[in-house]
Amino acid sequence: MTEEDEVTLGRFEKYIYLWIALCGVVGLLLGKLFPRIVHGVNAITVSGVSIPIAVLMFFLMYPAMAKVRLEEVSHAVRNIGPTIMTLIANWIIAPPLMVLLAWLFLDNPDFRAGTILLGISPCTGMVLFWIAFARGNVTQGVVITAINAVSTLLLYAPFAAFYLGVGGVPVPFSLVAVSVALFVGLPLLAGQVSKRLLIRRKGEQWFTDRYMPVMSDLATGSLLGMLVLLFSSEGQKILEYPLTVALIALPVFLHFVIMVAGTHLTAWLLRYRYEDAAMAALIGSSTQFEVAIGTAMVVFGLGSGAALATVVGPLIEVPVMVTATKLLRKTHPYFSQK
């Protein structure tokens, strides 16, 4: 990728700290001034699932799932090394590492559960932007995130049930499976079906240039709306227990750092191209915090310690990923140019 092709931050990503701060302020004010309304919104549930969160999560996940090219999974065979390494990082190394860090730094079982849910949810959406910003192999990244989307449907529920049990919080398999189906399966199905129908009727250019930007804006609004809802429910706890939030952030931060550094170094030792190394490091370390948050709310409740812990995830991940992409690009000269 040339200097002219460098990916720049959009308005939302560039001012992400400002948006989060504004959402925090709005959420805190709503929770403080209108507690009954906030409680009433949180009480809109079906079988333990928050309907407002489910709707917001659907529109948040939909654009990423619509962009996934499931038909390209077979292309990963041509570049199998980085694919295997990334999947190992996501499903074999990341989960037990987060369990270890959670046990080392957190005494509260709900907090441990929330951080573990983050550690076992490989990213399938926003990570593609970070790969592009780091000048990594976006095409291979799309293939791997497609594999992650499918494998999450199969693995997240049993992994969550197993590792939460190890973390001291046994959870029914079926309950976690419902959250995965809602927050991954439904958007994935809707995204793929709608993409094929719309391209057939309107053409691929209309879908890419007209439809998806609108959906992406809607996803941004959904994320901000979810942050407002989360802060309205959890913000008071953040203000009352700032040291607790900082303690939760510590294992999450260390998990990102260890996974980025470890995966990138492994790729360098294996003499991968920089593009593949950066892609693997970012996918191997980032999390699908939307799924973790949704699962925590379904399993433990909106006002639980587990939900609070998962909310800390995106607050830490965004600045860490911005920093990581810049640092990774500085390592480009040290990698093989084959």
Identify the CATH class.
Mainly Alpha
Strand content: under 5%
N- to C-terminal distance? 14 Å
Fraction in helix: over 70%
Strand element count: 2
- What is the chain-wise order of helices and strands? HHHEEHHHHHHHHHHH
Integer-rounded radius of gyration: 19 Å
Structure description:
- This protein is mainly α and 338 residues long.
- The protein has a single domain (10-332), classed as Na+/H+ antiporter like fold, CATH 1.20.1530.
- It is built from 14 helices and 2 strands.
- The protein has a two-stranded antiparallel sheet.
- A hairpin with a 2-residue loop joins β1 and β2.
- Residues 1-9 have low confidence and may be disordered.
Give the gist of this structure:
The chain has 14 helices and two strands; from the N terminus they run αααββααααααααααα. With 338 residues, the chain is an all-alpha fold.
Name the descriptors.
single chain; 338 residues; mainly alpha; Na+/H+ antiporter like fold; two-stranded antiparallel sheet; 78% helix; globular
Map the helices and strands.
Elements: H1 11-14, H2 16-33, H3 35-42, E1 45-46, E2 49-50, H4 51-67, H5 80-105, H6 109-119, H7 127-133, H8 138-166, H9 173-202, H10 204-240, H11 242-269, H12 274-285, H13 289-300, H14 305-330
Antiparallel strand pairs: 1-2
Helix pairs in contact: 2-3, 2-10, 4-9, 4-10, 5-6, 5-8, 5-11, 5-12, 6-11, 6-13, 6-14, 7-8, 7-12, 8-9, 8-12, 9-10, 9-13, 11-12, 11-14, 13-14
